[in-house]
Amino acid sequence: MTMTTNPTTPAPARTTEPAPRSHAARRTSRKGSGTRRTPGSYAVLAAVTVFVLAFLAPFAIILLNSFKTSADFRSHGSLSWPTEWNWSIITDVWERVDFTQKLLNSIQISLGVVLIAVLFALFNAYAIGIGRVRWRTAFLVFFLGVNVLPQEGLVYPIYYLFKEMGLYDGKLGYTILVGITYSAFGTYLLSSVFSSFPRELIEAASMDGAGRWTILWRIVLPMSWPTLSVMCVFFFVWSWNEFLYPLVLLISNDNQTVPLGLSVMQGQYTSDPTAMSAAALLGVVPMIVFFLIFQRSLTRGMTAGAVK
Description:
Mean pLDDT: 81
Distance between the termini: 73 Å
Radius of gyration: 31 Å
Number of helices: 14
Shape: globular
Number of strands: 0
Structural class: mainly alpha
Order of helices and strands: HHHHHHHHHHHHHH
């Protein structure tokens, strides 16, 4: 018995697997898939490198001179490498300035300023940006005017006001003053953010029975935290670097901040460049540590809303 095959039935297709590419071919493919650098990109890279080096140059000079002896500085100048590392100068400057007390004062004042400024700015912006209070534009112009006023024009009335109220030479009064001053900028910034807040979320929460406080703490605050984190970082740095207000309002040694305490290293007729460099290094290190700790929060806040 013979079997016949149907000529119309197609034969099964033969599947062939592609041959694996060699290592050289894969490397060539990866090179080709990348973007080529143009002369313009090299120029931008060179410009950024020069800018970074120019920015870091003063810090490098301070670091070099912070560990020199006075004789080494006078003999070789400020740009030379230390011939002998003077590690004791940091300890001498720390004890001369009473840096521990100054550091604690600056931390307490800066944290208090951040707390007061952010809370006031949050409440004001919530009323102006979301609550849509009357005379909203007038309030924004007022807060903008507070940001424009120079400190020199406010020191004289604030000095006599603190004298009359018994707040002169006190950390509490100074913290409240700076916190309220910074809250004006925070109000102006948050009002523009809250003005574009999704109204559907507010209306849905109101229909579910949520009050104004619940909407603020459960909806508005979590969604606005990236912006608030940036404000916290800026307010902390600004408060840390304040010099004019503490110079006028904080005169006792127990209440002075780090910038004001380091200023005593410069006398009218005497000057020690190495001690001043060491003092400047002590003042910069806390800010560097602060930025290293909160750099992720700052980056997330700056890029919030850039990519959707």
